[in-house]
Amino acid sequence: MKFENQPSYSLGQRGPNKDTLAGESGNVRLVSQSTLGEINRGRVLQALYDNGPKSRAELARLAGVNRTTITGIVQPMIEEGLLVEGDAVPSDFKGGKPARPIYFNPEAPMLGAVLLLPGRIQTCLVTLSGDIKALTKAQFDPHGDRGAFLAIIKDTLSATLSQAHQAPFGIGIASGGMIDSDNGVILAVNLAPVLTGLHLVDILQAHFSLPVVIDHHPRALLVGDRWFGPGRGQQNFAAIYTGEVLGGAFYIDGRVYRGLAGSGGELGHTVVQIDGELCNCGKHGCWETVAALPWLRREAARLGFANPESVTCARLVKEAAEGAEAANGLLDRYTRNVAFGILNLQQTLSLNSYVLHGDIAGGGADAAERVRQHVERLVKKRPNQEISITLNGIGEGHTALRGAAGLVLSSHLKLVI
């Protein structure tokens, strides 16, 4: 078996945080041997995603450990059929035993993935190397009957899963709204009330007899970025999504940040304008009220744009490039409004790296550069601090589906992500 070469990145050297012993009334948290094993497995897998096929010796060099340690990590995954050794590569001029690169087994079970947004469903199979297969799409009434919705999502998933050559490891769901990822419940979706309070994980597990995990849509985008996109090799960054709503997620010190029961990332409802416009969440001045498509289209209508309901960041970039002053002005305000929220994140967390998704990413390099310039003008920078604003060129749907698959993979292997 032969593998194609892929870009090279370094394997991070960050180890588990050193244990801190608290006082008599405090809690003492130690890293268990099983947790340490999960961390190491995760880093080896991430090294393969980041660097492409690598031999045991190459993985050992990247990790700064001996080959025996690497073999102890990868051999169980080879025996399980997750990884496979390729054909021996002739040694270099120094001689030595020919190396056999290790990579993901193309014959391994695939991962089921679902992207669930108001009115829209996408399902697919994802290989361990990130290829998307059997993509199926459907629509549902976000204000309709719950039974009708469940019939649609089951039929859509069945159409996808029927194309798997063997039972998938499980199903990962990236869902809009407020998600309790610990209990598998969609707590609330303002734009799709039919989903509010839905115990979707229990329902799909019972129907398909497969493990099911669910997480917030922007968090799945973040996982997709980390495993397959611009977040590869990074230890700190954020994913920012704009569309009908606004959301985000954080990767901090080598871990996906999750609050209690999967909370956190409700960035659209952080307040950027005290006593500002009423948000659909019931509060005033949320970031979402000035940096998402509803605001953009209302402003376009107020300014007299033709077909304001079809205005997007991509359209504004195109019209601005053609010399339309109104489009240029609205685009500048929109990117500034997106930058204000990133400014607050930067001042609070100093992540330095932000990956744009959704409508704002549709504006391409022009929109990203405008956002970056606004952030640069607004932020109080530290010496030698570089702030990166990038796009995920894979596309929001594929990134979220790959991220949903990554949730399944991390759950199946008990990886710490």
TrEMBL record:
InterPro entries with a match to the protein in the record: ATPase_NBD, ROK, WH-like_DNA-bd_sf, WH_DNA-bd_sf
Protein source organism: Rhizobium tropici
Molecular function GO terms recorded: kinase activity
Keywords assigned: Kinase, Plasmid, Transferase
Positions of the UniProt region annotated as Disordered: 1-25
Keyword Ligase attributed: no
A Pfam family the protein falls into: ROK
Coiled-coil annotated spans: none
Protein family: Belongs to the ROK (NagC/XylR) family.
Residue spans of biased composition, Polar residues class: 1-11
Protein name, as recorded: NBD/HSP70 family sugar kinase
Keyword Cytoplasm attached: no
Gene3D superfamilies recorded: 3.30.420.40, Winged helix-like DNA-binding domain superfamily/Winged helix DNA-binding domain
